[in-house]
Amino acid sequence: MTEHGVRWTTEQVLALAPDAASRKAGSKLGAAGPWSGAGGSGEGTVWGLCKGSGSRPYQTVVDLADAAGPAYKCSCPSRKFPCKHALGLLLLWAGGADAVPVAEQAPDWAEQWLTGRRERAQAKQDGNGGSSLAADPEAARRRAERRAERVTAGATELEQRLADLLRGGLAAAEQAGYGLWEETAARMVDAQAPGLASRVRDLGSIPGSGPGWPVRLLEECALLHLLDQGWLRRDRLPAGLAATVRSRVGVPAQADGPPVSDRWLVLAQYDTADPKLTTRRIWLYGAESGHTRLLLSYGAAGRAPELSLPVGLALDAELSVFPGTGQSRAALGERFAAPAPAAVRPPGLSPAEAAARYGEALGEDPWLESVPVTLASVIPTPDGDTWQLADPATESALPLTPAARSRPGLWRLVALSGGGPVTVFGECGHHGFTPLTAWPEGPGEPVTLC
Amino acid sequence: MGGTSAAVRNPALVTPTGAPDQRTSPDGAHAPAAPRPAAFASTAWEDLVTTALLGTDRRPPGRTGAGRAAPVALLDAAAVATVRRRAGLRAGRAARRPEPAPADPRPALPGAAARRLALLLADRAGGAGGGRRGSSPDLMELLPQWLAAANARGYAAPPQTLPALLDAARGRTDLRPAALAFAGPRALWLAHLNPDWRFALRAAPGGASALPDPEDGEGLRRLWDEGLFAERVTLLTALRSRTPSAARELLTSTWPTERAEDRLMFLDSLRTGLAAEDEPFLEQALSDRSRNVRATAAELLSALPDSALAARMAVRAAVCVAVDRTGERPGLVVEAPHECDPGMERDGIAAKPPTGRGERSWWLGQLVEAAPLTAWPDRLGGRTPEQIVALPVADGWQGELHAAWCRAAVRQRDARWSRALLGSPSAPEAGGPGAVSLAERAKLLATLDSAERAEWVAGFIATHGLSEAFQLLGMCAVPWAPPLGRAVVDALDIARDAGSYPWSFSGVMGLAERCLDTAEASRLDALLAIPDEREDASPGAGGYWAEAFQRLVSTLRLRAAMAEELS
User: Contacts of residue B561 in chain A, CB cutoff 8 Å?
Assistant: First the structure.
């Protein structure tokens, strides 16, 4: 890998920031002013001394070359990872070789940490013989059985509640209030079925949520019923579908699919946060396999999820999918090299093909909300008070989801298009299309929309 | 159970926004007679919804599966129908597409500059107002400079930055002209689609710089006769900066038929490119029906030193000021006007003073302000402006007289008189309060060329320090000339040694960050160290000063990098 291939763009560095405040603070340190002794190995390790308000400058090192993901060390007292100094240093480095020249040898304080990390990583790989295997397969089987019994009891109870609801009529659901659903969701958590619990919580937010809510409530109740039934008869389902049901119910599984080694292009990365947990979704596209895969990474309240892969980089790595038909979720296995900028773009579909793709995917997983697709040469078009992505060749179009219409990313997409065609990656489902990343028609870097 | 997983492709379209009755056939035309299975599925679905709403106790479903209780059978059917409906979704029909944005012929920004812009704009979100400024640069404060440099080089904005640029321009009117110029034609196209950015269309009437070609006399005439008020003002202003006489001729042709408040705005546009040829028209406007129009015409005429009005004013003012040689030293005596006759009123003198001012001094001030300064040396014994300003003035009229001369020097852009009235920057009275206030000094400075201005302010700061200098610094050309920059840095250094805190000088500090020549950065390194605290020093001040100078140096380096990236 050449030195030039390794430098990231500003956006890619900023995507590592744990929160908006760090992004801002890091941006301000991304200039040569406070830095001295900055240098890089040319293979993705960068170091520098940052002058703070104290008399001793902070020692900052970043290792992007590590296959296990970026690692940071800084002598500042901040508990954020990466801290603003690490971000500033990376921004400086992204600015070019003038600010952070390639050096033969890292200074001692940086070298110690880097070699220490390398040795520990090596030791971990060597010692990975059999320690991770379950200590007692018999005990594990008994645990799984006990859990399945609990889930079965939960699903049965939930079926009862749904039947009661339909007996009395959905119109009455509006008066029942949210408490009833919240209590049922808590019972599902006790039953060790988090997938059922979160569906129940979503159900609770539908009554009275604007015109057409009874239709939406019936749809969601029916799909929840379908999931309960799937669980209760999982032994009679094809193995793939049974695995899908298990994962939808929330039974943990190992990503045991065969590892697929590829150049995985990062298509999109976005976070959704609730009070307890931040969930990061990263969509990857395999340049050779053509697979689109989803990585999930979690962060406890207020912490950024650990995994961060900036859009537009490609990563040589192995991915293994989780069990289940129609499953795009995968786990990141071994990484062979640090992520590097790539000019690969996923091939695109027309709006009609994208809609059909969602329909086909529902055959494998009826609970799917959306599928990842790339639309080629579509024009963002206002349609009354909504927007759509229109294909001028076929005069067909997909509407944007209501949520996507109110995000600032919409305007970046419209500005990029200027009334002309663009390539857009996003999620296509029964609510419409959620654009996540766009490319200009000619050459140009991807623009993130989320 | 497996039935749902082999979802039937439904030939009818259900728009993803949900209403199940909006069905169109695949070719997009509304088709009430949809294929049978679809119609059946849809009525069946509506039937299911009705049953679910009322409850199966009240409205048992028609057919239940073998051995299934009514609510469970209903859920079974609804699950099949739901998955079928979702699987059957088709793309909808494309709406009428927006007109493509006009092409932007400017070259694309270099990559490094585009990255820098993204950083400057990222700083905009959620700025921490107030508080300590720390040691890192205020990026948002550098955006105006960045935009000016990018515009000077004629680069095009990267399209994806347009929303952030428009938002920045929306929040800060001072950024608007440069931000909109940089954002270019595509930003106006975008503003048509988003009501939040309507301001951008107001700034450019008609949503584009659709001025007719200056050679196209007929097009100009048509726009002038038929355009909206804002379009006509824009036309006049634009023409005035290119061919002033053509603008005046347009205005003259319709002058009597314009409304009074419109006449005032049109007249105001003549400030640009004002010249002796405008005199006949302005002279005629002196007898306008509207008092405001009359006053503006008079003000414009008095800015033309050779105009008849200026000559009339010179005669009136000369009567009021004379050299008195009866004392030991010559001095000036002032005899303020005793009345404001109709001729004076017609020439724009306001007869009624504001509350708390004497009539006669009010008239005197206006006369001297409107009289050409070139007339005074002859009237006052062939003295130069410097000598005239140095003469003592009897009976306490000095303030009134000098203030009026200051206003005249600013109005007539007379550098020689400005210099005389400013006096020496190191004179003790220059620090105020003298006959000439700091605000007036700032205006006088504007008539000097930039080098002389910088030199005067540098001299002022060297003598009087920074506390009074903020307004004067604001008048100086950016980047500051070396002597001025050094004077400011030295004064900051002195302020530090004198034991004050940097936030007492935050205004000047902020200016220095934006205006110092970036080449000065290396000379500031000596100031970055934290000195040992002396017994009598303000606690902690040393650290804060080091931080403030650190920010100053970082900002200068950053500005140098920005300029480099854009070159």
Answer: 31-32, 95
Identify the burial level of B11 via C-beta atoms within 10 angstroms of its C-beta, where 0-12 means exposed, 13-18 middle and 19 or more buried.
middle
Helix, strand or coil for residue A192?
A: coil
How many CB pairs below 8 Å do chains A and B form together?
257
Amino acid at B252: T
B24: burial class by Cβ within 10 Å (0-12, 13-18, 19+)? middle
Rounded CA Rg of chain A: 25
Catalogue the E-assigned strands of B31-146: 92-93
Q: What percent of chain A has pLDDT over 70?
A: 93
How far is the C-alpha of B131 from the C-alpha of A14, rounded, in Å? 24
Q: Burial, B525: exposed, middle or buried (Cβ in 10 Å; 0-12, 13-18, 19+)? A: exposed
Report how far residue A96's alpha carbon sits from residue A7's, in angstroms, rounded to the nearest whole number.
Answer: 8
Alpha helices per DSSP H over B348-424: 359-370, 376-379, 385-390, 398-411, 415-422
CA B536 – CA B517 distance, rounded (Å): 34
Distance CA(B414)–CA(B123), nearest Å, equals 43
A399: which chain B residues are within 8 Å (Cβ-Cβ)?
Answer: 15-17, 92
DSSP state of A100: S
A280: its two tokens: 């990061």
Query: What mean pLDDT do residues B552-565 have?
Result: 90
Binary contact (A55, B530; C-beta < 8 A) = yes
Q: In which residue are the tokens 């140096």 written?
A: B553
Q: How many CB atoms lie within 10 A of CB B249?
A: 12
Other beta carbons within 10 angstroms of residue B89's beta carbon come to 23
* B163 reaches A (C-beta below 8 A): yes
In tens, the pLDDT along B429-458 reads 665 555 577 788 888 998 999 999 999 999
Q: Is residue B92 within 8 Å of A396, Cβ to Cβ?
A: yes
DSSP-assigned states of every residue in A333-358:
EEE-S--EE-------B-HHHHHHHH
CA–CA min distance B531, chain A (Å): 11
Q: Residue A35 has what pLDDT?
A: 85
Q: In what order do the strands lie in the sheet with B92-93?
A: A447-448, A432-439, A422-429, A370-383, A386-391, A396-399, B92-93
Q: Which of B7, B90, B159 shows the shortest C-beta gap to A416?
A: B159
The span from the CA of B143 to the CA of B129, in Å, is 17
pLDDT tops 50 at residue A129: no
Q: pTM for the complete prediction?
A: 0.72
Q: How far is CA B316 from CA A323, B311, B369, B481, in A?
A: 99, 9, 11, 42
On whether the CB atoms of residues B387 and B332 are closer than 8 A, the answer is no
> Are B542 and B129 in contact, with CB atoms under 8 Å apart?
no
Q: How far is CA B382 from the centre of its chain?
A: 45
Other beta carbons within 10 Å of B367: 25
Which distant-in-sequence residues (6+ apart) come within 8 Å of B561 by Cβ? A31, A32, A95, B116
Q: Which of B453, B457, B558, B465 is nearest to B504 (CA)?
A: B465
Report the run of H or E that residue A424 belongs to, with start and end: strand A422-429
Token pair 């992505």 is at which residue? A389
Both structure tokens of B342? 């109709």
Contact indicator for A390, B93 with CB cutoff of 8 Å: no
Interface of B with A in 192-211 (CB under 8 A): 193-194
Assess contact for A77 and B161: CB atoms under 8 A: no
pLDDT digits (tens, 9 = 90+) for B299-311: 999 989 889 999 9
